[in-house]
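call fold(seq) -> tokens
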Amino acid sequence: MLPWLQLARISNLPTVLTNVTAAWLVAGGGWQDARLLWLILAGSLLYTGGMILNDAADVKFDREHRRERPIPSGQVSLRAAWSVGLGMLFVGACLAFAKGWAHPLMIAGLVVCILFYDLYHKPWAGSVVVMGACRAFLVLMAGSALVMDRAFAATDDLLCPGYRLTWDSLSFLASGNLVHAAALGCYIVGITMAARSEHKGSALGLAKRILAILLLFVPIIAAMASDTLLGSLDLIVGMALGWLLSVPIGFIGLGGPSIGRGVGWLLAGITIVDALAVATVSLPLAVLFACLAPVLRFWQRWVAAT
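ret:
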């Protein structure tokens, strides 16, 4: 079981829960709606499948540089990894559409980004943007589940089956979802830029380091610039600043294993990005999300996040 958990980077899975939950609540969804649970399950399957396929696609590199990984070490067969990973993507997409009522264009965008990143992230440096798009589409997928409610309420043509496939229906996406998706996407790009230099054992160049740090601060900047930000939310902004400045920013400026430690901290901090988004809806939930970050960092001692 542990090899599969390592393939899935299971220590990052709770960040999918906070991504989806924050997006759902910001879009106006309620706790009593069962679609939230289906969307969390669908997002978890899509994330896990993508992580497994990431290792399957990287098997040649791992056999040379990371022989301890589950596939090159023989703990998981390559065929099983491809089968399980693709199966999870398919089931996750079906659940998001049939049970979560997520917009099919958002689901398709997420699946395409996952597959594109898994297949091309090693040879193409620009794939860091695709990785950020994966999380952005996850947020938009969850938020789009409420699009159809608003779309049907705004039209008399309730029997038009093609309506849910049109781009026009996406105009009902909450502005908070768009800001959350953009901020989270930028944050993930910053993390991925740092993570790409980990296997090289060298620090990021000065220009790339500055860009990565700026991207990591985008969620905080977006929260502070939001018209909905209230004085009581200063606590979440402070926690976010404290998390970024305490350890990880310094680590990504160093080479070798320090980069991996910094990336681990930043990945755990995804829950703080979601806290900034959901704080406009529920401050107690935002504090809970932010407090999850050190818990996830502790969990990474048993299952690596990268």
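Confidence is low (pLDDT under 50) at residues 156-165.
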